[in-house]
Amino acid sequence: MELQITWFLLIGVLITGYAILDGFDLGVGILHLFAKNDTERRIHLNAIGPVWDGNEVWLLTAGGAIFAAFPPVYATVFSGLYLAFMLVLLALIFRAVSMEFRSKLESAGWRRCWDWAFGLGSLLATILFGAAIGNIIKGLPINADGVIHISFFALLSPYALVLALLTVAMFAMHGALYMTLKSEGELQQRMSRWAGIAWVVFLVLYIVATAGTVLTSPFMFEGVFTNVLWWIAVALMLASVTYIPLANKAGKYLHAFLSSAAAIASLIALMGIGLFPRMVPSSMNPDWSLTIYQHSSTPLTLKTMLIIALIGVPLMLIYTSFVYRAFGGKVKITKDSY
To answer: What single string gives the DSSP state of each residue in 47-85?
Structure first.
């Protein structure tokens, strides 16, 4: 039992790391659609250029962890949502390719084409991630055999779309705050304003999403009011969300960015606490939900993989810390830049 809980927490940490790190990558990509000129677009690309691929390692590691620790969950979700996951991969591939191909030709049309690919790829990936979260919270039609039968468009329910828009606003805010750390002058001020606008949209959508969760998935609130961890996550979420606009307006952009990261972490924690011990609820029958106790690997596998994780995750943290230190500071455009 302790091993299953440990892996549930570890996967939560990996997903949180991905949401915080690649969240601002995706947010910068969304804002890229509104850049005024080529110089601004190059600043966007070079702000995330040294770190985006390392950030996506967290997603790959989270997927691998689910595969190793909870293979039935991996099999059910990835097979049932095959088209959605293929679209996510396509969007992420277009983002990566656009960054590498954009500056290969001097043609303005060529660059603009890849700029759209970068921006729309970021937007599509964010929408699909948010919709996936919405469907997990709402519950998927998992039958007694652990099989999902659902069409792609059925995944785009009103509740899932609200969660998708909430994720877009959250990542746009996070990305704008990251850009305030990487830019100067007029662009920095505009990014600060974008962060303020995205914060308002995020707050409104979060209220709507919370009300929707109460109506759609009341099981997410069962027993949480006596859970100390839930109240800690709520307090962190309220404090961080409240402080973001105050720090942003005061020009304390690093504080605002860290508060945005804390808000993302607290929201994922609230989701995890509400789901536990379920990983994917069944909308057909609660007894058919995929749980950490009934759908995990053998104890020997969990122990072996935990040893590997205890070695690999610290290495990821060291690598991430080194990269951000090495490429810290404002973006300077040179002949070797994107």
So the answer is: HHTTTHHHHHHHHHHHHHHHHHH-HHHHHHHHHHTHHHH
